[in-house]
Every structure is written in structure tokens, then in C-alpha cells.
Design a protein that fits this description.
Blueprint (H helix, E strand, L loop, with lengths): L1 H15 L4 H13 L3 H14 L6 H14 L3 H14 L6 H14 L3 H14 L6 H14 L4 H14 L4 H11 L1 H14 L3 H14 L6 H16 L2 H14 L6 H14 L4 H14 L6 H9 L17
Helix pairs in contact: 1-3, 2-3, 3-4, 4-5, 4-6, 5-6, 6-7, 7-8, 8-9, 8-10, 9-10, 11-12, 12-13, 13-14, 14-15, 15-16, 16-17
Length: about 325
């Protein structure tokens, strides 16, 4: 059956050579209506080969792209879109084609290709009506697929700067206004998914760019918490907790960070001397804090095993 199929295609190709551009285009329409996709594409390729400068040629090239795209063949569609870009860059449907295939690439988890499609659209067709949508879509890809706070934030700013008053511009402005809160929520989500490097990078972007925000101290504390409980790098955890104390004095997280430094020294690193220094500093600075009783308990039993602590002795019995 396959041999017969290719023989038929070959015969039609020979017949197609004598047809005019319009006849080939109309023939492709008829073949599509009869669900003969291969024959339709053959007609259109004959048109492009024999009449590349005809006014119908860019329509034919776009139609091949659309056929592949609509039949879930994105790789073939991408190749013909490239032909469209190279041979007919001024064709009116090129911007739409780039936008459409970016959505298909995204659906198929080809994120870098989707980004490339949108960047092509933004760079080559800056006056097209799809530009606000493309710019905003690029920001969502950076934030939701690449987990890149900087590129996402910059794309949102570009959307507002270049397309103020548009639907996308207004949406981007709303997201910029809530960006610090977004970063905290994003980092928590990434942490739950064990994407610890991405979570740390998001929090670093927060503390580097939004230090004046109230939630920035929370971001700094979260970094220490991730290194403490997830990555289990206690030296770095102490460094990150220390930044809460040094950079966010007076914040809600400051006493908790100081407590955690003492806790790591006392219970993980087993450095009783350093733990005592940190705990005493805590009691001097925050004598009435809710953690003060726990700190006093820790100081009283520094360096002792559970068996030597009456309140905890039952745990080992």
C-alpha cells in the first residue's frame, strides 16, 4: 500500500508541473477538504518550487506550516516556518506563526524554543499588534518555566514600559506591584518540590533587589532555613542567619535567626562555647521574647547528654 501511495504522489507531482499557481493552490484546498494532507502539501510544494516569486507563494508556505501545526507535527511546522521567515519575511502572517508555534513548543515542554520564537517576534516585528502579548508571555515563561526571577522581572518591566495602557501592560504592572510577595510564594513552592537551587536563587533576587521591603527579612531567613534543614550545610546556614541580624535589625526574624545560630552551635556542631556566646547575646537583646525560656534551658544544659537532663531523661528510658 505504501508503494502505491508513493506512486500516486509521484504521478500527481508530474501532473502538477503543468499547473498554474492558482490551480495548484486550489488543488491543495480540494485535497485538504478530502483529508488528503500529503497531496495538499505536494501541491503547495510544487507551487513553491515552480513559482517561488508568485503572489501565492507566501500563502502556500504559510499553509504548509499551518497544516503541520494543526496535525500535531510541530517539528515539521518549525522547519516550514523557518522557510517562511527566510523567503517571505514580510508576509503578514509571519508574526502570528511565530506566536502560534511558541505555544506549541511550550505545550511540548520545548521551553527554549518557545522563548526563541517570541524573541524573534519581538526583534523582527516590533510594530505588530501581537507584540504586547508576546512580551508578556515571555515574562510568564521566564517566571513559571525557567524559574528565572531576573529575566521575568525585566520582561514585566519591558511590558509596562513599552505597552502601557494595554491589557498586558496593566497586568504586568499589577504583577510588578506584588512581585516581592510572589517571590516568597514561589520560593516556598520550589522548596516543596525539592528545587532548592532555584528557591535559593529566587530568594537571593529578593534580598538583592527588594531590601527595603518588609518581606525581604523573611526571604533572608528562609535562605538560612533551607541551608539548615534541606541542604544541611550548617556553616552556610549560620552565615545566612547572621545576615538577618546584620541587615535586618529590628525585624521579626532577627531573634529567630539568633536563636538558630545558637541552636546549630549547641546541638549540631557541638560547639558549646560558641553556643553560649550566641544564647547570652539573645537573652541580653531579647529578654522578653517567647524563645527566651528555651534559650535559658539550652544554656543550662549545654554540652550535656539527654540522660543528664531530668526533663528529657524519659526519652531514653
Amino acid at each position: 500500500m505504501k508503494i502505491q501511495h508513493f506512486i500516486i504522489i509521484g504521478m500527481i507531482t508530474i501532473i502538477s508541473c503543468g499547473k498554474s499557481p492558482k490551480e495548484l493552490f486550489d488543488s491543495s484546498e480540494a485535497n485538504l477538504k478530502n483529508n488528503n494532507m500529503d497531496l495538499a502539501i505536494n501541491d503547495l510544494r510544487s507551487l513553491l518550487e515552480k513559482h517561488p516569486n508568485d503572489s501565492l507563494a507566501p500563502h502556500a508556505q504559510y499553509k504548509i506550516f499551518s497544516i503541520y501545526l494543526n496535525n500535531d507535527q510541530p517539528d515539521s511546522a518549525a522547519k516550514d516556518l523557518q522557510n517562511l521567515l527566510e523567503n517571505y519575511p514580510n508576509y503578514s502572517h509571519v508574526p502570528l506563526s511565530l506566536y502560534e508555534i511558541s505555544s506549541v513548543h511550550l505545550k511540548n515542554n520545548k521551553v527554549d524554543l518557545a522563548i526563541k520564537d517570541l524573541q524573534n517576534l519581538l526583534e523582527k516585528y516590533p510594530s505588530d499588534s501581537l507584540i504586547p502579548q508576546a512580551q508578556y508571555k515571555l515574562s510568564t515563561i521566564y517566571l513559571n518555566y525557567k524559574n528565572d526571577m531576573k529575566l521575568g522581572y525585566d520582561a514585566l518591566k519591558n511590558t509596562v514600559k513599552n505597552h502601557a495602557g494595554s491589557i498586558q501592560g496593566n497586568q504586568a504592572q499589577d504583577e510588578l506591584n506584588q512581585f516581592p510577595e510572589y517571590i516568597i510564594n514561589k520560593a516556598e513552592s520550589l522548596r516543596k518540590r525539592k528545587m532548592l537551587k532555584e528557591a535559593i536563587n529566587a530568594l537571593m533576587f529578593m534580598t538583592d533587589n527588594f531590601k527595603a521591603e518588609k518581606s525581604s527579612s523573611k526571604a533572608q531567613y528562609m535562605k538560612g532555613d533551607i541551608y539548615m534543614n534541606d541542604i544541611r550545610d550548617f556553616d552556610v546556614a549560620i552565615q545566612e542567619y547572621r545576615k538577618v541580624i546584620n541587615n535586618y535589625s529590628g525585624s521579626e526574624q532577627e531573634p529567630h535567626a539568633l536563636f538558630m545560630i545558637g541552636y546549630i552551635y549547641a546541638n549540631i556542631i557541638n560547639d558549646s562555647s560558641s553556643a553560649k556566646v550566641e544564647y547570652q547575646k539573645f537573652l541580653k537583646t531579647f529578654p522578653n521574647h517567647e524563645l527566651a525560656p528555651s534559650v535559658k534551658f539550652e544554656i543550662e544544659y549545654l554540652g550535656k547528654s539527654i540522660e543528664d537532663i531530668p526533663a528529657l531523661k524519659h526519652i531514653t528510658s
